[in-house]
Design goal:
With 254 residues, the chain is mostly beta strands. It contains one helix and 29 strands.
Length: 254
């Protein structure tokens, strides 16, 4: 199992390096959104540098979708329902926010990322009902104890590769009802602000956080160092995870 953890760590580092190099390289015909609405249509490379949202319809990005440090794209996936197809990777910078898919289980679920979703210290990701043919890697980030309050929901997705969600610190975080072809590592994520209290109380843990439940995982599920520890919450309708490989650490009984 140590060999498996080391392999996933190497994968994480390699993908974060890819994010750093890809975000710098600009392709001919690339489009930048500094603010406002992104219209339906086809873009070569789409870069977001401010606060932008999808305007509905279908948005196709043939190469990479890049969300720069501090930028916001489709916050809470709250804009009109948009089908997004990214032919390359989704690259998310420090303190940035990205929303993909929809929270509506009755809507069409056609958003696809052909490559990877790679986030380096994001404020949050809101990804639901999206197909990711590569990996989902998120390292660090969140608002911390005193920063902006955010949750981190990853729900109802199909992810063909591996998932690593590591070192995020904020409100509530959960990995729920996802189908994953590879391994899932959910580690060192901390709830330090309880959003059920108004205003939120810094340092007060949301006891419902670290929900890892009702997932179907093709290989191994590894959870370690999370606060609160990873859990299945029946009060939220949670069910045990179906794992073809091993359940390790905090997820050994989940």
């Amino acid at each position: 199992m140590k060999k498996l953890r080391n392999s996933i760590c190497l994968l994480t580092l390699a993908l974060l390096s890819l994010a750093a190099s890809s975000a710098v390289a600009s392709r001919p015909g690339s489009t930048t959104c500094a603010s406002g609405t992104i219209a339906a249509g086809t873009y070569s490379t789409l870069k977001v540098t401010g606060v932008c949202s999808f305007g509905g319809g279908t948005v196709t990005v043939t190469h990479n979708l890049v969300v720069s440090d501090g930028a916001v794209l489709n916050d809470h996936a709250a804009s009109p329902l948009t089908t997004v197809h990214v032919g390359g990777n989704v690259l998310v910078g420090k303190s940035a926010i990205v929303g993909l898919g929809t929270y509506n289980p009755s809507a069409s679920h056609l958003s696809v990322v052909d490559g990877n979703v790679i986030a380096n210290q994001p404020l949050s990701l809101y990804i639901s009902f999206t197909t990711i043919h590569g990996n989902l890697i998120s390292h660090g980030g969140g608002g911390g104890s005193t920063g902006e309050f955010r949750n981190f929901p990853t729900k109802d997705n199909t992810i063909d590769g591996n998932v690593v969600i590591d070192g995020w610190t904020g409100g509530w975080i959960g990995f729920i009802r996802n189908h994953v072809g590879g391994n899932v590592i959910f580690s060192h994520n901390r709830s330090v602000i309880n959003g059920l209290v108004n205003p939120p109380v810094a340092g007060q843990v949301d006891s419902d956080s670290s929900e890892v439940m009702t997932n179907v995982i093709g290989r191994n599920l590894i959870c370690q160092g999370n606060t609160p520890k990873a859990q299945v919450n029946p009060d939220d309708g949670g069910q045990p995870n179906t794992v073809s490989g091993h359940k390790i650490g905090q997820c050994a009984g989940l």
